[in-house]
Design a protein that fits this description.
The chain is of the alpha/beta class and about 110 residues long. It is about 30% helix and about 15% strand. About 5% of the residues have low confidence.
């Protein structure tokens, strides 16, 4: 649970990604982003001038092994934990399962 002062309301996904990027990223930070993935997420993150690393998505979600081959030195990973946008693939494992139970959770092990 969180307190009211920990809740941020945005006007949409673009503003939310932009806000998070400003909080978490410095220019040049590497960010894994699903490929194909959400243009809204990409455009929101670009406000902080990161280096976007497109990581392939397959039938089970983001391909963590492929991402690690591209770079292990990343500051943030954007993943769709249930149904990928725009591909419609589902991540393996429960959406809110423990780290390591799904491909999204594997990113947490970084």
């Amino acid at each position: 649970m969180c307190d009211a002062e920990q809740v941020y309301i945005t006007s949409g996904a673009h503003q939310a990604f932009s806000f998070l990027a400003h909080l978490l990223l410095d220019p040049g930070d590497k960010v894994w982003i699903e490929n194909p993935g959400s243009r809204v997420a990409r455009n929101g993150l670009l406000q902080s001038e990161p280096e976007l690393i497109p990581v392939p998505v397959d039938d089970e979600g983001i391909n963590v092994s492929a991402g690690q081959q591209l770079t292990r030195d990343f500051r943030l990973a954007t993943v769709t934990p249930h149904t990928s946008n725009p591909g419609g693939t589902a991540d393996t494992g429960p959406p809110l399962g423990p780290a390591g139970s799904s491909r999204s959770g594997q990113c947490l092990d970084h």
